[in-house]
Structure formats: structure tokens, C-alpha cells
Design brief:
mainly alpha; 78% helix
Length: 167
């Protein structure tokens, strides 16, 4: 358990529910798979059912990959674009709320970031044990992206150290 992080009594921060795990993997899948790969995954009922049966993903997550969900997201973006062009007062209020949301999210990230990273790694590890080719593809891409981020962080740290030495 992380020191300094308050958790409700009876709730183990290390245990992920199926919905939590599915949400984390949904984000990784949307981030690492192309639209064609997602469509291919959805159109393969055996692979989808296997992921649901092994409790890797939920049906709710699969439905979000559906064409209707993508159309709904596109419509939402169009609404925001039109409201911005017309300088709607409600849109300005929405922008203020989004700024507040980013501020609150940053505070939550600072407070629970380490614990969240552990949960995300646990979800990816669970997905890695799944024989599904799509899940293996997602896990490999997530791992490659993580390696690139770690290397980039090392490069930044090295550059800052060099800059400190030069001054």
C-alpha cells in the first residue's frame, strides 16, 4: 500500500475490478490499434468472446468500439466546433469547466499517479497472459511505447545534467 494515500476501509488499492481493468485496456487498445485493427477485432466473435470469457474485457468495452459509438463521438466534436465558431456563451463556460477539470486531474495524478501506474501494469500483465492475437499486439505496442518513453526520460535527464555541468 502506498504511504500517504487514503483508501476507504475494506478497499484494497491493489485489486482491480473487471470494469477497471477493462477500462484501462480499452484506453490502451484505442491508443495502440488502428481503426482497421479494431474493426478486425470486433468482427472476430471468437476472439471477442474469448476475451470476455477470460475476463480481460467486458461487453461494455466492446460496444464502445462499435461504429455507432464512433459516429456519436464525431457528432460531439462537430457540436463543439460549431459552438466555438459561433462564440456560444455555453461553450465558453464549458472551456472554463475543462480548465478546472485539467487542474483537478493534475492534482489527482500527483496524489494517485504511482498507484495508477501499478494498476495499469497489472492490467497489461493480465492481458499478456491471454492467447488473443489482438491483446498480444496491444501489449507489445504498449511495451514498445513505454521503452521509448523511458529512453526519452533518460535523454532528458542526461541533457539536464550536461547543462548543469556546463554552467
Amino acid at each position: 500500500m502506498i504511504i500517504g494515500v487514503n483508501t476507504p476501509k475494506g478497499v484494497d488499492p491493489e485489486v482491480l475490478t473487471l470494469e477497471d481493468q477493462s477500462s484501462i485496456l480499452e484506453g490502451y487498445m484505442l491508443d495502440s490499434l488502428t481503426d482497421e485493427e479494431l474493426l478486425e477485432f470486433i468482427s472476430n466473435p471468437q476472439e471477442v468472446n474469448e476475451n470476455i470469457r477470460q475476463e480481460i474485457l467486458t461487453e461494455k468495452t466492446i460496444v464502445r468500439f462499435d461504429r455507432a459509438a464512433k459516429i456519436s463521438r464525431a457528432q460531439k466534436i462537430a457540436i463543439f466546433t460549431i459552438a466555438k465558431q459561433r462564440k456560444d456563451q455555453l461553450f465558453k463556460k464549458l472551456l472554463t469547466l475543462w480548465r478546472m477539470e485539467r487542474y483537478i486531474e493534475a492534482r489527482l495524478f500527483k496524489k494517485y499517479g504511482t498507484q495508477a501506474m501499478r494498476s495499469a501494469r497489472q492490467s497489461v500483465a493480465t492481458a499478456a497472459r491471454n492467447p488473443s492475437p489482438t491483446m498480444k499486439k496491444v501489449v507489445n505496442r504498449v511495451a514498445m511505447k513505454a521503452k521509448r518513453q523511458i529512453n526519452a526520460m533518460k535523454d532528458v535527464k542526461a541533457k539536464t545534467m550536461i547543462n548543469k555541468i556546463n554552467f
